[in-house]
Amino acid sequence: MDRVGLSQPLAVSKKAVKDVSQKVPPIKSGSEKQHEFQTSLNAGNVEELVTPKEQTAAMGLTYNVYLNSDRIFGCKNCKTHLANHDAIISRNFRGQHGKAYLFNAVVNVTQADIEERSMTTGRHLVRDIHCRQCKEKVGWLYDKAFETSEKYKEGKYILEADLLCAVY
Questions:
Q1: CA separation for the pair 11, 98 (Å, rounded)
Q2: Which three-class secondary structure state does DSSP give residue 56?
Q3: DSSP structure class, residue 50
Q4: Chain segment 127-145, per-residue pLDDT in tens
Q5: Residue 155's closest CA among 116, 100, 106, 97?
Q6: pLDDT > 70 fraction of the chain, expressed in percent and rounded
Q7: Which end of the chain is more exposed for a tag (fewer CB within 10 A), N or C?
Q8: Residue 21: helix, strand or coil by DSSP?
Q9: 166 and 74 Cβ atoms separated by less than 8 Å
């Protein structure tokens, strides 16, 4: 098998370069990605939000997402940004620690394993969510609701008010 040495230039046709360049998306800067994320978060587009896998930078390092809003909910323990006030769907929820809020999207959390729980509104498959910075439990994610009337909760997050603080 022939190997291309350092002294031999690799022959590539102009057509091949053109074909590859048309398939490669343009590289976005960090500020462009942050702007797209913030726009999606404000609009409540959960599908377009950053997933935990996308929050990993080069070399496997994780970084926190910082929200840009007048009212931000953060972890009570370490003040890490968790959710934008505008992403609240409902304030009419109760958690283990009292009052809780239903959100379209949250950031800077890790998810525990899925488990089945019987709640006041019926049976659900949920995952506890923890602050990524300090590992404190802050709420849960609804994966599946078995009652038809509760299906709107699927893919939504509960953050418990007693575990949150206002971040400015």
A1: 68
A2: strand
A3: P
A4: 999 999 999 999 999 999 9
A5: 106
A6: 64
A7: N
A8: helix
A9: yes
